[in-house]
Amino acid sequence: MPLRIPDDLPAAQVMRKENIFYISSTEAAEQDIRPLRILLLNLMPKKIETEIHILRMLANSPLQTDVELMRISDKPSKNTPIEHMETFYKDFEQVKDNKYDGMIVTGAPLGQLDFEDVVFWSQMTRIMDWTVTNVTSTMFLCWGVQAAMYHLYDINKHLLKKKISGVYPHYLVDSLAPIARGFDDVFDAPHSRYAEIREQDIINHPDLELIATSKIAGPYIFQRKDGRHLFVTGHSEYEPGCLKDEYERDLAAGINPDIPENYFPDNDPEMAPTVTWKSHGNLLFANWLNYYVYQLSPFNTDLIGVEIDNPLRPAQGA
């Protein structure tokens, strides 16, 4: 069963050209099946670009998935047409009474700010609290990870001496975790951020477990032990040119950034980037949909958020 998205969403045109299988809302309405409901809280400035990145990943699954788009506030976006926002995005007040099988919270270019200085922080904390009772499994990405760690787990981020930008090798700490099924022992993933969550803080927290890490980029994948929260500090959803675009943007802004590491052949920005992370990225999202959303979420949506036995963690003595 395919990904289901609105008929006229711009991402649909891109996916059609790339032969990525999806089904329109009109066609899906004729099928007698309960699809998975996924909510995407898009905090990135270029919202259409981020939609395409995430939808590409979610489409690589046989599960029928309905995707709804949410914004953090109704403040006009500088990088996305207002018509697009009004047509496809919902505010929290419009979804707060709904139950969702899964939710994705994107990153945001806010890593150097204190959380309390983020203009929408109070709304963000309300949404994060709401996920506990209204979403089966929430995937947090990049800055979304830092926000959730601070608010839900009392673990603060630490600013780095300089921005980490590049593609780095990672290794598995827990190769038996469902989210890591099919991963190679060593795999690549892109990072682009100014802050980090420290590995020891994750290890010391009784509700968290570390899945994958990097000697250079630090903790990459970790989760709440029951699978209800998944944290991914990098950007496995990134397209080949994303780090290049960010590098050129920072150059134009006079920031004088370092060239993204392990990204351009021979470290030459004039050459096309080498992509080494796409297979891992697709597997990451497919595993999340299968093991953490589909297999954990009850068929009766009224039971979402209710404590039930977790098949990912067998009972003691089982």
Question: In brief, what are we looking at here?
Answer:
The chain is of the alpha/beta class.
SSE order and pairing:
Blueprint: E1 3-5, H1 10-17, E2 22-24, H2 25-28, E3 36-41, H3 47-58, E4 65-70, H4 82-88, E5 89-90, H5 92-95, E6 100-105, H6 121-134, E7 135-141, H7 143-153, E8 158-172, E9 186-196, H8 199-204, E10 208-214, E11 218-224, E12 229-232, H9 242-252, H10 278-294
Parallel strand pairs: 1-2, 1-4, 3-4, 3-6, 4-5, 6-7, 7-12
Antiparallel strand pairs: 8-9, 8-10, 10-11, 11-12
Helix pairs in contact: 1-3, 6-7
Keywords:
single chain; 24% strand; disordered C terminus; alpha/beta; globular; twelve-stranded mixed beta sheet; 318 residues
Structure write-up:
- The chain has helices at residues 10-17, 25-28, 47-58, 82-88, 92-95, 121-134, 143-153, 199-204, 242-252, 278-294; strands at residues 3-5, 22-24, 36-41, 65-70, 89-90, 100-105, 135-141, 158-172, 186-196, 208-214, 218-224, 229-232.
- The protein has ten helices and twelve strands.
- The chain is α/β, with parallel strands linked by helices.
- A hairpin with a 3-residue loop joins strand 10 (208-214) and strand 11.
- Strands 1, 2, 3, 4, 5, 6, 7, 8, 9, 10, 11 and 12 form a twelve-stranded mixed beta sheet that branches.
- The two termini are 33 Å apart.
